[in-house]
Amino acid sequence: MARLDEIPKELLIDSALAHRMLVTFVREEVTKVGFKRALFGLSGGIDSALTATIAAEALGKDNVLAVTMPYRSSSPESLADAKLVADSLGIETIEVDITPQIDAYFGRKDVPTSEERIEQLRRGNKMARERMTILYDLSMSENALVLGTSNKTELLLGYGTLFGDMASALNPIGDLYKSQVWQLAQDIGVPEKVVEKAPTADLWSGQTDQEEIGYSYAEIDRIFYYLVDCRTEVETVISKGFDRSFVEHIAELLRQSQYKRRLPVVAKLGKRTIDRDFRYPRDWGY
């Protein structure tokens, strides 16, 4: 899966350069706003494993906290893989079981029920948001910034939960397509078992990203590369030999999910409105 010959040639990166840039990014962005530490959810998947590896190098293993947050249906293999990553880096981990909170909410008589598929998605979204509330609570107790673990493919697809896994203070891997995550993780020494496993959000038993999305990440990444990075029109992408229905579907997902990639839109009344007229220059530091 993560072999270089399976990664689209358009998306091959200079791993050594990307590695240095991302380590520097985390170190500078964390420290310039007055923090020394960072934390994140460690799922056992490749995205959080890569984030963990970058953070440990940027801040030092003693300044990184990995949090595992299983639900009762979570795969034991995912927890084992998370432990494998943490042990390989020598970073601290804590486990917070989210089963009581999730089951208590959906067990309430005043919470409406839905048909099975929608119910499954609702539960998955609730789990993602519960995990992020835990990370932000621990952020205060640990005096640490929350790092995101969503890659560029997921962000462009909208394949994530708004104010759940898509929330963070900093996201070191958000400009890496999934294919590039595989390449970089493989090249900088993320455990092979984690690199080679089938991607899954582990929201319910047997769930895999490819089954959920309907296409492979390598296929999707190529389409996004042309649509987003190259600003190629849909018809021109199709003319390169891609299936029309596939390209149009991916382009529509990109359009429909734009609201997830924006901060809340503020209704303008005054002369300087937050999010358009007044934007504080973050690079001034604190």
Which characteristics define this entry?
single chain; 286 residues; mainly alpha; Rossmann fold; four-stranded parallel sheet; 12 helices; globular
Name the beta content range.
5-15%
- What Rg do the Cα atoms give? 19 Å
Judged by helices, strands and strand pairing, the structural class is mainly alpha
Terminal CA distance? 42 Å
Mean pLDDT: 91
Give a short account of the largest sheet.
4 strands, parallel
Number of strands: 4
Helical residue percent band: 40-55%
- CATH topology, by name, is Rossmann fold
Uncertain residue segments: none
Q: What is the CATH class designation?
A: Alpha Beta
Instruction: Please give the domain count.
Output: 1
Helix-strand string: HEHEHEHHEHHHHHHH
Strand order, main sheet: write it out: 3-2-1-4
- Can you count the helices? 12
CATH architecture: 3-Layer(aba) Sandwich
Shape: globular
Give me the secondary-structure topology.
Blueprint: H1 15-31, E1 37-41, H2 46-59, E2 64-68, H3 76-89, E3 92-95, H4 99-106, H5 116-142, E4 144-146, H6 152-157, H7 178-188, H8 192-196, H9 209-213, H10 217-229, H11 234-239, H12 244-256
Walk me through this protein's architecture.
By secondary structure, the protein is mainly α. It has a single domain (4-214), classed as HUPs (Rossmann fold). It is 49% helix and 6% strand. Strands 3-2-1-4 form a four-stranded parallel sheet, sandwiched between helices. It is globular. The model has no long low-confidence stretch (mean pLDDT 91).
